[in-house]
């Protein structure tokens, strides 16, 4: 990549004409060499859960040299993730994490974490609804005259 925020307009040999916010600049060979030396030891690591949506320009040779597929967690790993996500939550006795781990095949760690957070929010909402008496809702509305 040529640089952050820069769009390459034209390349002729070693000279590059770049546009940054409407201003054109000619970079000399010395500046280009300096940029290449400065970026020599840069490593970019990227991750996505949607490889089908990647821009084809990123996958051209020389951009991302290695693509490593990390599969979704297996049942044992999902169980560990569920235990980790629920360790600070009160979990009802009828909740079986082993059964959840079995039913959540192809869920990522982030999916499992979100599942636990959503379940906790729903449980709080249900508990709040059970604690509030019906007349609280009626009396808090506009008063009839």
Overall description:
It is built from 5 helices and 3 strands, in the order βββααααα. The chain is an alpha+beta fold and 145 residues long. The chain folds into 2 domains: 7-59, no CATH class; 75-132, Helicase, Ruva Protein, domain 3. Strands 1-2-3 form a 3-stranded antiparallel beta sheet. The longest helix is centred in the C-terminal third of the chain and has 23 residues, at 109-131. It is elongated.
Blueprint (SSEs and pairs):
Elements: E1 7-12, E2 15-20, E3 23-27, H1 29-38, H2 75-86, H3 97-103, H4 109-131, H5 134-139
Antiparallel strand pairs: 1-2, 2-3
Short account of what is shown:
This protein has helices at residues 29-38, 75-86, 97-103, 109-131, 134-139, and strands spanning 7-12, 15-20, 23-27.
